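Researcher: Here's a chain I'd like modeled. Treat it as a single chain, no partners, no ligands.
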Amino acid sequence: MFHRSLYLPAIFFAVACVVNVGGPAGALVPDEPSAASNGTSGAGAFLAFQKPAMLLAQREKGKKQRSGGKKDKRKGGGLGPVSELCTECEDLEGFVSPSEIDDKIRKMVGKYKGGGGSENVAIQQARGVIETGLYPEFIGGADCPEIDSEKWAIDYSFKRGGRAALHKGVDIPQPRGKPLRVVSAGTVVGKFMNEGNRKGIEVMLRHTPEQTGLTFWTYSQYTHLQEMSPLPIGAEVKMGVEIGKTSNTGKMGRRVRRNALHFAIFYSAHPEWSNDGRVVTPKEGYFMDPNAFYRLQPPYDSQSMLRLPGDQKTVPVPYMKTDGSFVPTETKRIWPYPCE
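Model: Modeled as a single isolated chain. Structure tokens:
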């Protein structure tokens, strides 16, 4: 945002800027139930349950978006200054121009202010950010770093001065400098310093269905890192490789943030994705409860998981041991920290 000031020797003018912030978002309608929960699976079922039931936010006609002096060709008009396109991404599988990604996906990811907190939250809830009641249970009773009180999809309005907000991931506190592990084989598709943003230093990986054993494309997000990973954009990494070190980087409020990994998962039935220099955006993407990433069978959408009976809320979580071996040995997905 640019600020202009005008100095006159003896006269000061106060300029009132009237901004139309639009009306409230529509009803909060979560993603539809999974066809897979009725015994089917695959991308067809994924598409069936992931269509929002109704449009949640109407954009204002003629609304102008500031683009830092550059013409913004992104779908929906753009949500802030246009960042530098990720040129290293252009030859990677599935990469498309940011103009091919709708702004609702940027609002879902949550780094852009867009239409305001309530509008973003409505989109996020419709695209999976609702509490599911799932909880991890580490295979064989292993001693693994656990999620603390900062759980999936909890209300974060109290941390944002009353502004509508959700926690779009889980936090796993660990000592500063403790290595983090790649949760599945994949490709580095995003590296962001996030200056002035609460996420701090961030790395994102893209995982194909073949790499995870799932029927859709997934994206793992690791934030608050101590320093930027030396792995370059486009690097193909194996499961269990170090992706960064635990820290507390990112814009803070009144209190110092504890050292912890913020871990999140996106997914999409489509292989296309983009990186506009500020965010990674899967085409028609959704958020997934990170606990659900370790489920061996559908459903994976939040609304269907919310309706699961209590005896199906536990998720057996595979992991890497401190000696580098995996439990179970054939797993394609692991917890982001080694376990004892």
